[in-house]
């Protein structure tokens, strides 16, 4: 077999793998539409004791807002406690203590728990607090979230069965309209919650806790082995709990607003952590899942969820191989066309947006375009995460910086926590230039059917690279909406 023929077979294999992962979105959309009603709930006949955990690390711009929101919750003071799990190393510690003292004087049971080290990072902080938690239920909020006043009263009735171990709510967006980046992230998260989480909730499929804006039954956490060190501690515990027989539930009719990352470098860090964490969980849990006595479809969907970030390096390989095959006059339109149609087909995604947003779907079309660019351009960043996860390279749990950005007029570049230029941008620029080359080859060889696919990838790499350069400078805020 000639090397070019082998390359062609690799290209076809990549195309079908990408098609498989892409098509799974539509399977979950189908399940989401069928699973339209929230699970049953029972009225509260008493107020169970609730521990609210707030894991924070260097959050001086938002910790005040977070504690105030939690202390505004409509729930009896004598039936709740707040644990501020503060691993901070900067002025956040002083801010936290000052705010906590104000509410302690008002009768709130607030404790600021600090550790001498950050062993196991967020998971370690949660476990540290859990060991001393008095609540039968544990609500968790990251620093960028603002729970509404009735959060506890809205969520507790859904623990209607003792087999329900966790209830997750949808994330809202405080600053969705701030920039093209926040618009892209908002629709990405909405799709995750309203398609994936809703499709899996209250069924045989495994779903996951999203790390925040949810509540656990303490017994479930303990029975499942507690929090373990992982870049995706939420996913890790969720799958272990469901392997133990616990049920996890998603509420699409309850939301908790949060601040979206406004700096592309911060978003890259968040995406990197999610991608590498998923691969870590796949290495830890896949064998146990595949041999468990659970339905076949449960195993398939768990496999897809834990390994789906493998698509990112496949996208890059797909693009790199494409020009050589076009110059070799191989038949590529069918394979690339299948992927491209699934990714950017207007009818399919218009229907998806309609199902997610109802009559508001026309307003989300531009957001979806930005998501296409972001999703393609982030492939370099996430490919590095996948490789590190596969080779077991250790890395620190790097938090996503928050700047307290809510209004479109808010600025962030003069604040602490702004992240520097990321070296992966050099690869993004190189791939953007390579995409221009692939575009020219497609024109010369008459492969017009693959041009939309090439253009999408090229624009995506360009978008993320340009945004990274702009967001790594010291003046102004680039790409405001």
Describe what this molecule looks like in 3D.
This protein is about 55% helix and about 10% strand. It has 2 domains: about 5-30 and about 305-470, no CATH class; about 45-260, Spore Coat Polysaccharide Biosynthesis Protein SpsA, Chain A, CATH 3.90.550. It has a 7-stranded mixed sheet with strand order 3-2-1-4-6-5-7, sandwiched between helices. The protein is built from 17 helices and 7 strands. The radius of gyration is 23 Å and the shape is globular. The chain is an alpha/beta fold.
Our measurement of the CA-to-CA distance between the termini, rounded to an integer number of angstroms, reads: 52 Å
Give the overall form: globular
Instruction: Please give the oligomerization state of what you see.
Output: single chain
User: What integer is the average pLDDT?
Assistant: 92
**How many H/I helices?**
17
Derived from helix and strand composition plus strand pairing, the structural class reads alpha/beta
The total tally of domains equals: 2
| Beta strand count | 7
Query: Any idea of the CATH topology of the largest domain?
Result: Spore Coat Polysaccharide Biosynthesis Protein SpsA, Chain A
**Under the CATH scheme, which architecture of the largest domain would be assigned?**
Alpha-Beta Complex
Secondary-structure element pattern, one letter each: HEHEHEHEHEHEHHEHHHHHHHHH
Sheet with the most strands, sense and barrel status = 7 strands, mixed
Roughly what fraction of the amino acids lie in strands?
5-15%
